[in-house]
């Protein structure tokens, strides 16, 4: 999904999602097009929950 769709899926703003990327959320980029999988978002959120 796109970055905007991924932020919506995660329930956060675009800026917060960019912070998630800085914290290690994996984003794929092919020829300048960035995509994020639901699996990676779920894994990231699970690893940062307490």
- Average pLDDT taken over every residue: 96
Low-confidence stretches at least 5 residues in length (pLDDT < 50)? none
Please state roughly what percent of the residues sit in beta strands, choosing from under 5%, 5-15%, 15-25%, 25-35%, 35-45% or over 45%: 5-15%
Question: Count the strands?
Answer: 2
| Shape estimate | globular
Helix and strand composition category: alpha+beta
Intertermini distance:
26 Å
Describe this protein with a few key phrases.
alpha+beta, two-stranded antiparallel sheet
The gist of it:
With 50 residues, this protein is of the alpha+beta class.
Structure description:
With 50 residues, the protein is of the alpha+beta class. It is built from 3 helices and 2 strands, in the order ααββα. The protein has a two-stranded antiparallel ribbon. The chain is globular, with a radius of gyration of 10 Å.
């Amino acid at each position: 999904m796109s970055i905007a769709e991924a932020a919506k899926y995660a329930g956060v703003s675009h800026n917060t999602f960019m912070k998630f990327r800085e914290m290690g959320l994996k984003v794929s980029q092919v020829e300048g097009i960035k995509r994020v999988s639901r699996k990676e978002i779920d894994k990231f959120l699970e690893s940062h929950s307490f």
